[in-house]
Each structure stands twice: as structure tokens, then as C-alpha cells.
Amino acid sequence: MSRFLRIGASRQIIILVGVQLVLLSYFLLNTAVKKLHGDNTVRGVDSQVPDLSAERQVERNLLINYQESRLNNLENVHNKKSKNNLETVQSAKPLNRTELKSNDSLANTDVDYLIYLIRFTFPKTGDSKYPGFNETKSHSIPLDRRTNDLPSKQCRSHKWVIPSDMKVSVVIPFKNEPWSTLLRTVIGILKRTPLEYLHEIILVDDHSTRKYLLEPLKRVLGPFKHISVIRTPYKMGPASTRNYGAQHTKGNVIIFFDSHCEVSSGWMEPLLDAISKDRTRIVAPVINVILPDTMESVGSNQRMKTQINWSLGALFGPFKESVWGKHNITDPIPQPSLMGAVFAMDREYYFKIGGMGDYFNGWGGEDVDLAIKSWLCGGGLALCRCSLVGHVYKAHPYVLTNIPLKNVALMAEAWMGEYLPITKCALVRGNFLPKVDTTILKSTLALKKKLKCKPFKWYLQNVLPELEIPEENTTFNLLHAQRSSLSVGTDMKTLKFIPDVREIACGVSVVNDRLKCKGQCLTIKNDTLIFDTCDVDDKYQYWKYSNDEIRPYFDKKLCVAKKDKHDQRATLKPCNETVDKIEYQSRFASGCIKTTL
């Protein structure tokens, strides 16, 4: 008995000594990191990095050398493995996600070390003046958090076929992006991507003014040879910044990210599998919505596709059953347009079709232009439903479909052909379009001729047949809420307030005091507004409309309004100033569209 007691006491002593050694190691590491960053470890945006003394410089070099040696060892192992793969595997190989080992990704200890450095370098409180989302809330969320948005069991068990020579360059353009959303994008990619396919991550700074995005960002990411930070030579805007980043890539596949995304496990493999089967198409993941106020991931509706309207704005609409039903969830499913948050392309194909238009001025339209160009010029676009990526949908200070008119004008002149008058009519300012730079237009049309691009009529017939050609008396209009940032759209038949979609998915014909969409008339049924079969004898289908409101003929004391803050559907409520009414804004006079099409 005493023998066992002696053994137990010895074990207790060993455990106590071990705990003391762990605490001592943590204290020494913490001290070293604090010395590395001086007194500036948790200062705000305007902090300046102090000059390092000789002693601190030595400590800094030791830490950096240690980190570089770890990454060099990883790269040596990776290169050796890649060489062996090339010698033994001459064709594409199946990759089963369930068989991946932890060493297929950048070592977790190295990524954890990066997270540790980030937390000691950047401010913990956000800038309340930064538009778009709750910055302080974002700073408090783990940089490597896992959301509940996981691919289905069928996706996880599927064997993706990826050529062994596929190397991915991730390009992340940013400007004054809060550090937490930017680096959460980077950390997620590092932790949830097989290293054998990830060649590099390039962060492209389009002249940020936040000081922590300058030297401190480079200093923290510097030891990681997979990551580089480059600066644009002048303010370029989203489209040209992506092109600038693409020019610096070395991989044969480019994946573009917005600077506020979070990837799910297994996000990359479906994209690479789809590109390997067709190198002339753009592929995109399912975008899960991350709310800007709470930073909560609320998922998405995978049955919705990205499409366009006659204003050349991007919006969501349901997949046709005939298309949805013939594709397995692991199949890339064709979709008409692109929301540019995340998309992947073969590098050679990207440059073949001219990349993103350098002529775009500021935000808006470049993703739609790229999608139309790909479809008409020999490629395509597909949605990969097994690839899930979260995206913070910032609150925008501008209407999303009111993209700069110059951008729309260039797109319309380049691609719409005989349908150009419809786009002109559908724009906010009626028939007015700004004069486009003829030099830019000539280069675009020359590329179009060189690539033997199809006319837009082909797009309507084969890609988006549900985009109906409006009748002559169609009045394109904008329906929106007076006291809400949510706009009115159509979800199937029901008139609803839909975030970030500012226009219903078709032109609204105003015929004999009825509002028609896709041949159906706006009516009220069971206290909800829907588009239903037109009936000349149905008194609930006749409306009086002005720039201020829409009222039903059967009771002109009522107005079209949102049900309540929890129910996004449109209904009828008494007209008064407290009601969030729907305004009707005519885009152009009736008869703008000619019947020559």
C-alpha cells in the first residue's frame, strides 16, 4: 500500500513540475512577443511602431527566423511530396475529403501563432464611423471560428477529381477593410484549404489610409511565405485592383475573394473539380449571408440563382425546376450572372477574355460584365452547391441597382446590341446615358470581335429565357419602402421586402390601372400581395399609383405597406405617416420601348 502511495506522490510532483514549466514557457513567450511589439501591442489605428533597440531587434530576428524555418520545413516537405506525385501520378486523382489529414493544411500551430501575433498587434475596438457593419463585434469574434454552415453529407463523401498540377492563387483586394474581417478571411483559407493546392494568397491594398493596414499588416504576415501584401500604384477601384492582383499570380487557377468572407470546410475542392472539367467557365460557391450588425451567419437559399434585369443589375431568382431537377448537388449548375463576392477561374481563360473591365469607375457592374462576357464569348458560369462561403453583406449607403451610369453605359453599348433601347429605358434616368469613352469602347468591341462573341439574343434564348422582352407600354419602375432600408422584390409570386435587391425581377406593365409582372396582375389574397392570374372582373387587381404611394381602388384609404418588422411580405394598411409605405417611381414615359425588336 505504501508503495502505491509513494508512486502517487511522485506522479503529483511530476505533474506540478510540468505545470510550472508550461506556465514559465507561456510567460517567456508572452514577454518575447511584448518586447517584439514594444508598447504598441494594443494601440489604435493611429499607432506608430517604435524603433527597436538592438536587444529587441535580436529577439525579433530570433522569432522571425524560427517562424521562417518552420515554414521552410513545411515547404520542403510539400515540394518533396509534390515531386513524388508528379513522378507517380500522371493524371487527375480522386480526392476524398474524409481522408484528408491535418498535415494537408498549413500546420495549425503556425496558424495559431499567426492568430496570437494578430491579437497583440491590432486594436480591439472598432471604428464606429466605418460604414457597413459592426466593426467592434467583428473584432471580438475568433479569427478561426467555424460556422454551422457545412456542406451536405453527400458533398462531404463525394470524391472530387482534381489534377495534381492545379495550383491556386487567392487574390483578396481591399481598401480600409477592418483588420478582423480581412484576416478572418485569410485565416479561414489557411485552416480549411489543402496546402497541396494552395500556392499563394495575395492581398491587394488599393491605397488604404488605415495605418494598421500598412506596416503592421506586412510585419505580421511577413514570415508566412504563402502570403504577400502588395499595393496598387494608384487608386484603381475594385475591377482594376482585381486585375492588378491577377497579374501578380503564379498559380494556374485564380480565386477572387471579397475582403470580408469566411470559408467552410471543403470549400475549394468542388470549385477545382468544376474548373478541371471545363476551363472556360467561371465557378462560384454558394454565398451564405453574414449579418452586418451581429456578424451571425444565417445561411442562404440554395435554390436561388444570380441573374440580371434590364437595368443590368444583379439580383436573385429561383432556378427553374427543369434545370434544378436534372443536376445532382455535386454537379456545377449553370447560372446566368455573378455576385462578385467569391469566384474562381482558370488563369489563362481569365486573361483570354480580358479579365475585368479596367474601364469601370468605382464600385458596381464589373461582376455582371464579366458574367455576360464569359457566356457570350465561349465560356459560361456555374454555381457549385457543395462549396459554401460566408460573406458579410454590408449596409450600403447607395442603392445597389443604381450602379454608376457610366459602367452601365459601357456594358450596354458593348453587349446589348439590338436590345440597347430597353436598357436605356430601364435606367433610373430614363433615356439619358452618359457619353462613353469611344477609345475604351473600341478596344472592348475589338476583343468581342476577336473572341467571336455571340449576340445578346443568344443569351436571352439559352441562358436567361425568363427575362422577358417588355411590351411597348411597359413602364419600368422602382418600388421601394419609405422608412426601411429593405426594398420590394418578388419571391416567386409574393411581393416581399428583400434585403439588397432593389428592383423586382421584371418590368411592371401599367395597363388599365393594373400592375403586371410576367403576364400576371398584382392582387391581394389572404391579406398578402401577390402576382396572380389577371381577371378584368377582379376588383382587387386595380390600383391608383403616384410617386408617393400605391392605393387599391376598392378602398383608397389603404396603402401598400410592409406587414411588420418580422414579416417581410407586403400588405395593405391605413395610409398615414407612420406606415412604411411603398413608393412607385416611374422610370420612363409609357411608349419608350419601340416594337422593332
TrEMBL record:
Q: Which GO terms describe its biological process?
A: protein O-linked glycosylation
Which keywords describe this protein according to UniProt?
Answer: Disulfide bond, Glycosyltransferase, Golgi apparatus, Lectin, Manganese, Membrane, Transferase, Transmembrane, Transmembrane helix
Output the InterPro entries linked to this UniProt entry.
Answer: Galactosyl_T_C, Glyco_trans_2-like, Nucleotide-diphossugar_trans, Ricin_B-like_lectins
Instruction: Report the main location listed first in the record.
Output: Golgi
Describe the location of the Galactosyltransferase C-terminal domain by residue ranges.
Answer: 333-385
Quick one: signal sequence residues?
none
Enzyme Commission number, as recorded: 2.4.1.-
Transmembrane is among the record's keywords = yes
Domain Glycosyltransferase 2-like spans what residues?
A: 169-302
Named in its record, the pathway it takes part in is: Protein modification; protein glycosylation
MF term (GO), any: polypeptide N-acetylgalactosaminyltransferase activity
Query: What PANTHER family does the annotation carry?
Result: N-ACETYLGALACTOSAMINYLTRANSFERASE, POLYPEPTIDE N-ACETYLGALACTOSAMINYLTRANSFERASE 2
Family of the protein in this entry: Belongs to the glycosyltransferase 2 family. GalNAc-T subfamily.
Record protein name field: Polypeptide N-acetylgalactosaminyltransferase
